Hints:
It holds the Pfam family HTH_OrfB_IS605. The chain is of the alpha+beta class. The chain is built from 6 helices and 9 strands, in the order βαααβββββββαβαα. The protein has helices at about 15-45, 60-70, 80-100, 215-225, 245-250, 255-265; strands at about 1-10, 115-120, 125-130, 135-140, 140-145, 155-165, 170-180, 200-205, 240. The protein is extended, with a radius of gyration of 29 Å.
Amino acid sequence: xxxxxxxxxxxxxxxxxxxxxxxxxxxxxxxxxxxxxxxxxxxxxxxxxxxxxxxxxxxxxxxxxxxxxxxxxxxxxxxxxxxxxxxxxxxxxxxxxxxxxxxxxxxxxxxxxxxxxxxxxxxxxxxxxxxxxxxxxxxxxxxxxxxxxxxxxxxxxxxxxxxxxxxxxxxxxxxxxxxxxxxxxxxxxxxxxxxxxxxxxxxxxxxxxxxxxxxxxxxxxxxxxxxxxxxxxxxxxxxxxxxxxxxxxxxxxxxxxxxxxxxxxxxx
Length: 268
């Protein structure tokens, strides 16, 4: 069975590498904001027109518009970062329309303490380094020292990479897909589940082993000390078990209950 999992590792870039990563964060934010502005203008022009007359830009046209704006601002950029920014802004806009009255996504601010940019599953490598605890993560021909505190699963496939910075600490996140043998549960009747926080009653659901009901035994003693209600220890497997949760919650925050707690703490 295929399993998707995320792995996050700490990066230790040099001063020059930090400047390059900060430039990548800035370019990603600019590309994201340009794409969001284009989609907002497109939405404003099409919202009053009938559905057949609405015109939307293709993803390739939006990519070209973002790249032209970045070139006009004299910003050196990577085409992968610009493309990932376009994909993320389109995904954010689709998620915004799923919820009513949610509004448009917000523009990204390059002055915030948390920055990030996305990368695809191409153009990177992970190699061994002189230290066993560290590995060399190469991205955009830039070798970065990575703290490998856990191993990646065997035969994994990287789906996406994300570089982030939080309060001058740099991280890399891998979205990984790999095969894992998961044994399905054959007999579900062996498990016992009992919720004592519902309104009035709890169903025993044909419980065969009453020794597993440890929480219910403690609940019986609480009912006897607080409310003076005795619940039968012999449980029928097909009847409802009374919980008296309303009375229990009222007594739980009373003065008598607090005094009882203090007495029990003194005894210990």
